[in-house]
Amino acid sequence: MHFVSGSDKINITNIYSSNERSDMMKNLLSKVFSKKAKIQIEFCQNNLDRFLNEQTIADYGKFLKNPRIQYKEYECLSECKLCKKTPYAKVNGQIMSGQDSQDLLNKLYDELK
Q1: Closest Cα to residue 97, out of 34, 41, 55?
Q2: What is the 3-state secondary structure (H, E, C) of 48-79?
Q3: What DSSP state is assigned to residue 111?
Q4: pLDDT in tens, 26-77
Q5: Do β-strands 39-44 and 69-74 pair in parallel, antiparallel, or remain unpaired?
C-alpha cells in the first residue's frame, strides 16, 4: 500500500507487483471462463469383460479420449451382486449402472453435459 498525502486528504492507492497483477488476472479469467470439472470414472475389469463387446469397446474408447475424463480400471470394485446383473461404473464415487453397456455409455455422456 502506498500513502499519498495531498492538501487535507490522504489518498490510498494499491501498488501491486507484476506477479500479483498476473495472479489477479488469472483468477479473474478463471472465474469468467471457468472450466468444467473433470470426471473421475472407475471401472471393474470383470464387469467390462462381462458386458462389453467389440462395438461397445470402440464406443467406450472414443468416450474415454475426452480430456475431461480421468478413468481407472480395477480388477474388482467389490460390487459383486451388481456386477453380475448389469454394467456399471463409479462416477465421482457414485455408482452408475445401465440396462446394457450402451445405456451406461449414454448416461456417462450425460455426465459430461
Answers
A1: 41
A2: HHHHCCHHHHHHHHHHHCCCCEEEEEECCCCC
A3: H
A4: 766 665 565 678 999 999 999 999 999 998 999 999 999 999 999 999 999 9
A5: parallel
Residue in this structure with the C-alpha cell 473421475, named with its chain if needed: 40
Rounded to two decimals, what is the model's pTM?
0.68
For residue 2, the cross-strand partners are 13
For residue 49, the tally of other CB atoms under 10 A from its CB is: 8
Cell of 27: 483468477
- How far, in Å, CA of 35 to CA of 68, rounded? 10
Total residues found in the chain within this entry: 113
Find, among 103, 46, 37, 104, the residue nearest to 73 by Cα: 46
Interior angle at CA 58, CA 97 and CA 48, nearest 5: 40
Distance, in Å, from the CA atom of 82 to the CA atom of 110, rounded to the nearest integer, reads: 21
